[in-house]
From TrEMBL, chains A, B, C, D:
Pfam families: MazG-like. It is found in: Cytoplasm, Cytosol. Its cofactor is Mg(2+). The keyword Cytoplasm applies. PANTHER family: DCTP PYROPHOSPHATASE 1 (PTHR14552:SF21), PTHR14552. GO terms for cellular component: cytosol. Its EC number is 3.6.1.12. Residues 1-20 are annotated as: Disordered. Hydrolyzes deoxynucleoside triphosphates (dNTPs) to the corresponding nucleoside monophosphates. Has a strong preference for dCTP and its analogs including 5-iodo-dCTP and 5-methyl-dCTP for which it may even have a higher efficiency. May protect DNA or RNA against the incorporation of these genotoxic nucleotide analogs through their catabolism. GO terms for biological process: dCTP catabolic process; DNA protection. This is dCTP pyrophosphatase 1. It is an enzyme of class 3 (hydrolase). It catalyses: dCTP + H2O = dCMP + diphosphate + H(+).
Length: 148, 148, 148, 148
């Protein structure tokens, strides 16, 4: 399949722009099936595994104080470790969506359209207040961050 | 724009299998740029936003006890809400990888290859012990879950 | 105060009922000061460290499916590991509150009074609907879990 | 009851230094029992509720960039909201330990002794390398943060 070929190429080149959520979903499903590990992949087991990976990701950033975009000064080993932890979160997220029967790619596109309608450019541009409002709305916060 | 058209089609059909990580990365970058919100998208800000979304996702599952695969008995509104929270985690994860300069798709494919080499089928098949070992290794745990 | 004296004994006896939040706050502050580690204990550093520990805690429960109260079948080593991870979360939480200037003990008592007023026994007793409502309110959810 | 009186005083004065983990454990147990909510307080339900609260806590800090100790510039409403979210995490943590049969206070004191033995002052003082090592050890990281 064309996408599959792209994936292998992408991997070889370290360029994963063309990797689809369908690719990852299938690879994760095959990986579990081959090892007879579906028995362990219940929604809440996978959710807690995801939380564990988010913890690992947080550990990478925990003692650094503010970190600039692009991670200036990080060596290759640190960046590789970051890529692995980001991947672990992504892979469990994709797997969780799959076992829940959620079309993650479609849901993500819909969520972005909802956000785009909710926060029109002319209304929100350059406004941190609007941003915080957007952010707190978006994250289901009780809104008290509007006070910022 | 071509990608936009593809996205709308995918969305219209509710089939997001073909959505690429590159699509989501670009859409998130455009969304932030149009609103002048790049100023808020530092790595640790996005990481904490991701943690906030993981919290929202956990709230959906928190009082239900064990939840079977496929979510039998969940109504459409619940499933839609789940799709939105899964999407919020995915979108912040994609954005975090982008501002860190990490090729998330490539890193995910590499991580799956590492896992495949590390846990050969013939060695791991149907073994929960190996699975737990795999899981604890994979999640960077101190390994004491090997006692399970 | 008798309970205070019991702290050291408590440790020996494994009875920590009398341990106060003030005890833990002071011990954590002294620990950091003696090692000149205050420089690393900024609020967001500690928050990310807390998230890391919550991840470790989740790993203990991640592959077990539902776990009954009292953890029947867990061996001593597993329970000890659980105690350590619960402690790591507690200690970073106490430290985070301290560097933020929050009186955690007082805040916790106030929060329990708020909850008690908000959910009078006669109104909530035995009602999972009220419970879910309580839970979603309490957790600042966007309320869609009310649909449960 | 003596403890209740102490609690109210502590609360009235906004001084919770003397609040014990036993106080909070008992109050949480009574609160659940009075409302017949023990049925919802399984270990993994409480763990996911804890993760939800950690998400709420993270939302408070997510868009602020680095935050100095003492939270200069935060208004009373923001600090009160922070106190409530810190409390929600603490209360679910205490409740989780209780339903797991873990003596949280004793475990916390033991964990601090372990840390003190593991990181002697003369060895660790003022050393961020040792600190990172301590931190990564402590948090069960795979140690690659030693590269920092």
């Amino acid at each position: 399949m064309k996408e599959k070929e792209d994936s292998s190429i992408a991997m070889a080149e370290g360029d994963g722009e063309g990797v689809t959520l369908g690719d990852l979903k299938k690879k994760m499903a095959d990986f579990a099936k081959e090892r007879d590990w579906d028995q362990f992949h219940s929604p809440r087991n996978l959710l807690l595994a995801l939380v564990g990976e988010v913890g690992e990701l947080s550990e990478i950033f925990q003692w650094r104080g503010e970190v600039p975009r692009g991670l200036p000064g990080w060596d290759e080993k640190e960046k590789e470790h970051l890529g692995e932890e980001l991947s672990d979160v992504l892979l469990y997220l994709v797997r969780l969506a799959d076992v829940c029967g959620v079309d993650l790619g479609g849901a993500a596109l819909r969520k972005m359209e909802i956000n785009a309608r909710k926060y029109p450019v002319q209304y929100c541009k350059g406004s941190s207040k609007k941003y915080i409002h957007y952010a707190s709305e978006n994250s289901g916060s009780n809104g008290s961050t509007d006070e910022l």
